[in-house]
Amino acid sequence: MDGGDRVEDDDRADGESISRLLRAWRARIDARTVPELRYTQPRPGRRLSQAQAARLTGVSEGWYRALEAGRRQDFSESFLLRVAKALRLSEAETLTLFLAVCGRRPPGDPAGAQKDLPHGVKALLEQQVSYPAYLSDGGWNVVASNSLMGEWFPWVLRPAPNLMRWALLHPEAREQMLDWEDSCARTYLAMLRVAANSAPADTELRALVREILDADADCRRIWAQEHDVVEHRDGHVFRLRLPYHGNAEIRVTTHVLLPIQRPDLRFVFITPMDGWAGV
Question: What does the pLDDT read at residue 277?
Answer without folding.
Answer: 44
